[in-house]
Amino acid sequence: MLNTFQNKTHAAIRPSTEYVTAEKIAVVGLGYVGLPVAVAAAAKFPGAIGFDISTRRIDALLKGEDATGEIEPERLKASGLTFSTMPDAMKGCTFFIVTVPTPIDNQNRPDLSPLDKACELVGPALTPGSIVVFESTVYPGVTEDYCAPRLEKYSGLKRGSGFKLGYSPERINPGDKEHRFEKILKVISAEDAESLARVRHVYGSIVEAGLFEASSIKVAEAAKVLENTQRDLNIALMNELSLILDRMGISTREVLAAAGTKWNFLKFSPGLVGGHCIGVDPYYLTAAAEGLGYRPEVILAGRRVNDGMGAFIAEKSVKLMLQQGLNPKTAKIGIFGVTFKENVPDIRNSKVFDIVREFKSYGLTPLLTDPLAQSSHTMHEYGEEVSEAHLLDDLDVLLFAVPHLEYAGDLAGLQKKLKPGGILVDVKSVIAPSQRRSDIVYWSL
């Protein structure tokens, strides 16, 4: 631990060209996190390598196509990155940035197998003096206690004398064109002062927003899981509030508008909490706590609330159908938006499919559509097909789950897909009262 280090925030550092070009960068994992990091690194570090195990992903990137939508084709083609699926391509690199996913299993336990695989791939490329910086979200101790022994095994080198470790938690917000990698303050950490200086120079040359130096790797790891756990709990509070207010017949949107007039009110909203960050990271923290004999109460309570929202929305929709005299078994139900959040194509851990599963438990089969999600992906992940939007007309129930910009531009057209007297379920309360059809039933969280 770096107990002698003081936490510092730096403006973006502009190291000398000689120092910058001395490092050869390899970024391992080219998803939402890794690709923006790799492209930014390539702009400052000639010969940077972008590595991924997916041949499909690499082939697309070589054509200038980014399925995540994070990097524009022109910028990708001009990046100068060398893309590869061959681990040997990383040989000769001195600075490795690991950005592989850290999911959970079906028991909500951390699945560290992607990190294990990354260590297996990176290890043989390490040479004395190499540094490995992990950006993957983990619980405190994973970098030093889990990854280091594996890197030692696969490299034949010893941590400290052979290679060094660093940790810099990712802060990518998929679909957010304003808060891009270079524009977000970066937390950095390393195992000693020498390693921290190298991490500072590399990230300082590509992150315009500046750096914050954590006092240790474990502090940086804990900070990351705290960021998303805090957001998860705040949304859970809003979701629980919506469950209560719905029983009272009070609009949550109107309550939040009124409460939001107070200067220090935190403006969170109810909704589905999925994806590979907020819906996953709290389980990493709780797993670590339980390993120490402490069972978290507040964090797990928030997770239970958020994980149950899909089922609640489906159940509420069925109740609304019955109240309107509709037969749920014959009603035509359309769900618009299936990705885990708006304006991204990623369907991983999308809670919209919790709604679908709950509908199916009632014997109902909703139709799904999404302008960004690919049917081949939804079939592979969930066994569900995504249809073209024009096939979802004359609906009894329209469940507006993910408000992509494409939908926001024509909310009137979206509502035309409902029959008179139909039910509009607006999960995120996007459609204002003045925009709603007067001949339909409206409900939102």
Helix content: 25-40%
Shape: elongated
Query: What is the number of strand segments?
Result: 14
CATH topology of the domain at 8-226: Rossmann fold
Low-confidence runs: 1-6, 11-21
- N- and C-termini, Cα separation: 45 Å
Strand content: 5-15%
Query: What is the CATH domain class of the domain at 8-226?
Result: Alpha Beta
User: Mean pLDDT score, rounded?
Assistant: 93
List the defining traits of the structure above.
445 residues, alpha/beta, Rossmann fold, 9-stranded mixed sheet, 5-stranded parallel sheet, 38% helix, elongated, disordered N terminus
Layout of SSEs?
Blueprint: E1 8-10, H1 17-22, E2 25-28, H2 34-44, E3 49-51, H3 55-62, H4 73-77, E4 82-84, E5 95-98, H5 113-122, E6 130-134, H6 142-155, E7 163-167, E8 186-190, H7 193-206, E9 211-213, H8 217-248, H9 252-259, H10 281-291, H11 298-307, H12 309-323, E10 333-336, H13 352-361, E11 367-369, H14 375-382, E12 395-400, H15 405-408, H16 411-415, E13 418-426, E14 441-444
Parallel strand pairs: 2-3, 2-5, 3-4, 5-6, 6-7, 8-9, 10-11, 10-12, 12-13, 13-14
Antiparallel strand pairs: 1-9, 7-8
Helix pairs in contact: 2-7, 5-6, 8-10, 8-11, 12-13
Describe the structure.
By secondary structure, this protein is of the alpha/beta class. Helix content is 38%, strand content 14%. It has 16 helices and 14 strands. It has helices at 17-22, 34-44, 55-62, 73-77, 113-122, 142-155, 193-206, 217-248, 252-259, 281-291, 298-307, 309-323, 352-361, 375-382, 405-408, 411-415, and strands at 8-10, 25-28, 49-51, 82-84, 95-98, 130-134, 163-167, 186-190, 211-213, 333-336, 367-369, 395-400, 418-426, 441-444. The strands form two sheets. Strands 1-9-8-7-6-5-2-3-4 form a nine-stranded mixed β-sheet, with helices on both faces. Strands 11-10-12-13-14 form a five-stranded parallel β-sheet, with helices on one face. α6 links the parallel β6 and β7. α2 crosses α7 (193-206) and α12 packs across α13. It is elongated and about 75 Å long. The two termini are 45 Å apart.
